[in-house]
Amino acid sequence: MAPFPEEVDVFSAPHWRMKQLVGLYCDKLSKTNFSNNNDFRALLQSLYATFKEFKMHEQIENECIIGLLQQRSRTVYNVHSDNKLSEMLSLFEKGLKNVKVSRL
């Protein structure tokens, strides 16, 4: 019998999604016309939604996965406690308020 039970892989799929989102924005950044307010606003809205997803991912990790690891080992700390996601979300909100929508 193995010393530890077989675990569910909680790393690959969620982190694959985060990598997918980063790759998506590399592409979007190169295609956005920053002199067009509608393009710029659409990018900001999309980035805001993505950073909310990053924040949710972080929250799930901290509440579920890191909590379980801390129960098993005294050496795991809040790995996401010094992040900038909340600050980034706030900046996107401010940016969206300041970018005017162009009417055609």
From TrEMBL:
Q: Which Gene3D superfamilies match?
A: nmb1532 protein domain like (1.20.120.520)
User: Could you name the domain of life of the organism this protein comes from?
Assistant: Eukaryota
What is the designated name of this protein? F-box/LRR-repeat protein 5
* Protein source organism: Strix occidentalis caurina
